[in-house]
Write a structure and sequence with these properties.
Helix content is 27%, strand content 25%. By secondary structure, the chain is an alpha+beta fold. It has 3 domains: 57 residues, Orthogonal Bundle (Arc Repressor Mutant, subunit A); 205 residues, Bira Bifunctional Protein, Domain 2 (BirA Bifunctional Protein, domain 2, 2-Layer Sandwich), CATH 3.30.930; 44 residues, Roll (SH3 type barrels), CATH 2.30.30.100. The strands form 3 sheets. A 7-stranded mixed sheet has the order 3-4-5-9-8-7-6, sandwiched between helices. It has a 5-stranded antiparallel sheet with strand order 13-12-11-10-14. Strand 10 and strand 11 form a beta hairpin. Helix 6 crosses helix 7. The longest helix has 18 residues.
Length: 328
């Protein structure tokens, strides 16, 4: 933990009072100059730190400061010791976790960021990741003997955990658009990207990277034109410590289900939150869209649909997408 991180932890533990530069320097074993530099570095990261002459420094009590200490204090005790790296900004949390995976990091390592410069979504699309209004995180998983076709279950498990985490920190009801998007009141507030490295000999995953992004607030000036009609936010005003709480809720809930036998039987929870089941959608096939009625999502996370001619099909998410234009 560097000086900046130590200072943030100290300020987070003392939001009710001011700490003088001298007290901070003594507590951290650094010089007054180093304290001043660390305060400025935290402010550059977006931390709201007050400075009052003859009193010292204080972290604004209602601030939403993303930090390792802030996340850890909300994590379930069963995963309190997971590896965790937090960045004000990074290119991609999936990239950070891939580097950790190749370096031998254990399962459960998480990279969390307040902004991404190269966030990615499904099918090579970019993932809008502005500073100050979103939360972006990735988890490293090392599932035993998980076939390539089954990795989609990690995505759907994450979708359930995301809905539960959102509802734990807000009064909003979250639903799932098959297979990896989270919606509130008809707007997308979260997206999931799962990437894996497979063994050619066994066709099983050597490791899996689970990435997810949350729109906490609407960015100043709104969302970009290409997504403004579909994107939404979980909150309409800033919330105290919300990013730390949401990150911890998601990680805790996902890891608890992931480690449970059969993923805790999450399939029924997924079906209950589906925006597609019981509605007519457009199946986006290579030959063009085709209308279909969604019957169910099976235990392999395939979408079971019936076309107007009466034929039925089981759709894999990697092969087709759906559009909810007819879903109510």
């Amino acid at each position: 933990m560097n000086t900046k991180e130590k200072l943030l932890g100290l300020l987070e533990s003392n939001t009710e009072k001011y700490l003088s530069g001298e007290d901070i320097a003594e507590a951290l074993g650094i010089s007054r100059t180093a304290v001043w530099k660390a305060v400025n570095a935290l402010r550059s990261d977006g931390c709201a730190i007050e400075a009052v002459s003859n009193k010292g420094y204080r972290l604004v009590s209602d601030a939403d400061v993303l930090s390792e200490n802030g996340i850890r204090k909300h994590l379930d005790t069963s995963i309190a010791d997971i590896g965790l790296s937090v960045y004000p900004v990074t290119d991609s949390t999936n990239i950070r976790v891939r580097e950790a995976a190749l370096s031998g990091a254990p399962e459960g390592f998480a990279a969390v960021a307040g902004s991404q410069t190269a966030g990615r979504g499904r099918l090579g699309r970019s993932f809008y990741s502005p500073a100050g209004t979103g939360l972006y995180l990735s988890l490293l998983l090392r599932p035993a003997a998980l076939p390539s076709r089954q990795t989609i279950k990690i995505t759907t498990l994450a979708a359930v955990a995301a809905c539960e985490a959102i509802e734990a920190v807000s009064d909003r009801k979250a639903m799932i658009k098959w297979v990896n998007d989270i919606f509130i009141d008809g707007k997308k507030v979260s997206g999931i990207l799962t990437e894996a490295s497979f063994s050619l000999e066994s066709d099983s995953a050597e490791y899996v990277i689970l990435g997810i992004g949350f729109n906490i607030l609407t960015p100043e000036g709104g969302f970009p034109d290409e997504i403004k009609n579909i994107a939404g936010a979980i909150f309409d005003r800033p919330q105290k410590d919300i990013r730390n709480r949401l990150a911890a809720e998601f990680i805790s809930r996902f890891m608890a289900a992931y480690r449970a036998p059969r993923f805790g039987g999450y399939e029924e929870k997924y079906r209950a939150r589906s925006l597609a089941v019981g509605h007519t959608v457009d199946v986006l096939l290579p030959a063009g869209p085709k209308e279909a009625y969604v019957l169910d999502v099976d235990d392999d996370c395939r979408l079971i649909v019936r076309y107007p001619d009466g034929t039925e099909d089981s759709l894999y998410s990697g092969e087709v997408s759906i559009k909810l234009s007819h879903a109510r």
